[in-house]
Structure formats: C-alpha cells, structure tokens
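Something for you to look into today, if you have time. Could you write out one complete protein record for me, on any chain you like? Leave the record below and I will have a look.
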Amino acid sequence: MTPVYAFIILVACTLLIRIVKGPLYTLPAMGLDMCKRNWWTNLLYINNFYPVEQSEICLTWSWYLAVDFQCYLISPFFILLLYRKRALGVSCIAALITASLILTGVLSAKYGLPVTVFGSPSKNTTDASADYIYTKPWTRISPFLLGMLLGYAFSSMRSRQVPINRGVVLMAWLLSTALMLSVVFGLYSHYQMPQVAQNESMKAFYNACHRFAWTLGVAWVVFACETGNGGLAAELLSWPGWKPASKVSYTVYLLHPALILVYMSSRPVTLHYDDWMLVGSSTSLFLGCC
C-alpha cells in the first residue's frame, strides 16, 4: 500500500504541479502544491492531524488512509481480547462504538457542524475551516469495529453455511435496504425545507449515526452472501468480472482526484455540466487511472 502511495505523492510533487497552468488553476485547492512541503506526514499516516490547516495537507483526500492505519494499529488489542475473553471483548467494542457515536453527535451539536463535508462550523469557534469530526479516528472508528466483529464471527464459525428462516432473511434484507436508503435520501428534507436545515438536533443525529447505519446495512449484505442467504445479490457480487476493477480500485482512489484537478485546471473556460459530459468524464478518468 505505502509504495504506491509514495509514488503518487512523488508524481504530485514533480509532475502534476508543472503540467497545468491555466485560468482555472485549482491544484492548490486540493493540496498538490503542499506535497513538496508536507509529504512526510502522509507517509507517517498522520496527515489527518497535521498539518492542522486543511489547505496545507498533501493530497487532501488521503486522510482516509491515515484513519484506516490508525484504526488498524489498535485492532490487535481488540482481536486478542475477543479470543481470550469473548464476552468482555464484545462488550468493550460495543461500548467504544456507542462512545464514538455519542462523541460525534456532541461535537456536531457543539460546533453547529453541517451534515456534509461541504460547510463550516457555525458556533463556538472562530476557525471556519476546522475539522472536528470528518477525518478524526475517534468519530470514524465505529464502522471499523463493526467490521472487526463481523470478521470475528466468520472466523468462529465451523461452517459458513448458516440456514436461516426465509421470513427472517427477508426481514433482514428489508431492514438493511431501508437503513442504506435512509442514509442516502434522509437529507432530502434537509435540502428542501429551510426550517429542517436549521435544526441542530437533526444534524447532530445524522452526523452521529449515518455512517454506522450504512455499515450495518453493508454488514448484513456481507453476512448474507457469506452464509448462503444472499440469493441473487450473492451471485451478482461474486461475478468474476468484478476482479479486474477490484485490483485497480486503490490506485484509482489515490489518483482520480488529481486527474480531475488537472483536467479542470487545463480548461480555458468553465465547464457546462450535463449527463453525457459526466458519463464521458467519469469513464475517461477511470480508464486513465487504470
């Protein structure tokens, strides 16, 4: 993982910042210019803490790798606890998940945080660019811990085939789908009704719960497909045609924002968005990353 990461940073430091200089130059906006100064924070996986200013972070979208690494560092403690004292391990993980959700909600309410990354704190701070919950491990750890519990459950099974009543399976699929749809479409009223958008309690609740709710839905999909209860979903997700894309997904994740910036910065005029333009741009960028 790190060698590819380091190579992308090297490309950003040396090539990308030099090949584009146009009227829509936006490379500094995503931290490509900062890679010459702060590349080392990325390789140490601390770039979600330092630099503090978001505008000084190298490859701003790479905060996820830092969070993932930090969660990975503490995972042996919980895995060992699960194998030595299962009940205590499950209890500790459940308590930590609960604490993470509560902390996220409290921070969101305290600083008046928006429900998306595109926004600024609205109270109790003078730093409009401060990041309190989006890239911090203590607010991102709950999905990681749930995945750890699911992995432990799989490793403890004598057989991956688990017969479950069809009615229970159907209900679980409906609940899983409802959870994920509520995360995606739950913000509809927030954007359509100003009085809802100003409700700090609703924003705090959504910020606290939406990632964990999505993870619960995905966890059921994984469990159902692995235990013979996935039906058509298991057949679709196990299709061999997904393998080529899965092998390049990490590189695409690292490179595609930089290519988008290069593309946008090299245009002499602003871009008019429509459906076909988005399809064409997305396809060409994906193939370019591959």
In short: The CA atoms of residues 21 and 181 lie 42 Å apart.
